[in-house]
Fold this protein.
Amino acid sequence: MDQKINTENIKKNYSLGILGGGQLALMLTEAANKRGIKVCVQTKSSNDPAGSKADYVIEADPLKLKGNKDLIKECEKIIFENEWIRIEKLKLIDANNIFVPSLQSIQPLVDRISQKKLIEKMSLPSPRWITISNFKILEDDEIEHWNFPLMVKSFKGGYDGKGNKKINSKEDLNSFLVGADSDDWLIEEWIDYKNELALVGSRDFDGTIRFFPVVETFQKNNVCEWVLTPAEINIDVTTFAINIFSSIVNELNYVGVIGIEFFYGDNGLLINEIAPRTHNSAHFSIEACTSSQFDQHICISSGVKPPDIKMYSQGSLMINLLGLKKNFPLSIEKRIELLSQIKGSNIHWYGKSKESVGRKMAHITFLLNEKNHFKRTEKSKDILRQVRDIWPSPNY
């Protein structure tokens, strides 16, 4: 009679597998390399960013079950580059709790509607929202409670400005509703905030939570342009953000790195979105902290006790370098050369084969040693001007 093999007792070729091969997977792989931890990546092409640093690449769409099964055969634990995974399909694989975070803990976070329902269940502060399906059946007097402008967001897969649309009038809304699939979008009240904040941290298998500083993010066209660490907020706001973070990860028994984006203004601190993964707002941690967000995730997933998180400097500035139009006069190579000449620059090139407008191609980090927020802000604006003279923001 055939007996089922217990894969937990079989030593596999790689300590970690990563579903996805983009820039987040690249930086996770780099962190693993520093610790001598072997990594296998499942991605569509070995030419994807993480392919150059991984010990082995399974060339398969991360959403395809066959490739997932191959990854499981090779790896002790598997982590996710992003939340765009097919939970129900992965549950079909007898994986012996191989995923970090677990499928159960990540499931409420893989799309915006399930996130909203979790936030409501936990009575946490967030903008008022409604699915388009439910909005369409509202009575006229109920619709009057939704004032313009409004924000519509895609149910799943939105990032870097994609999947968000501002609705300024009833005519805009009617036009949108005609072309939109009701199951794919939700409507959110418009928030006039003063600051956009983010908090990234980790939770290990023992339940210990570690935090990076709360940062302020600066956006253009719904895409993060630059990040200043730490944000200028009082201790009460910081404590509230930490309590929200802790409540969510403990409620879900979440293990690994997670990021929460906030709006802050007259309405107080509101959750914008939750990212169950490493997050753009904490890229500064590679240079600025004793343990980066990528190091935290790698350590936790592979069974290494993660270091405590401390800043090496008073603050930091991280600037995203987004793809420009083909006719931009400076080549990528020339831009990188000139940026490297700015004092204190730390450039992270993602190794993407094609530059397209708005695509995240790289980021650059500077440590700030000014002792107060005003001076760090002024220094950051000066550095930002130098960087943008070489590599401007794209014109969409």
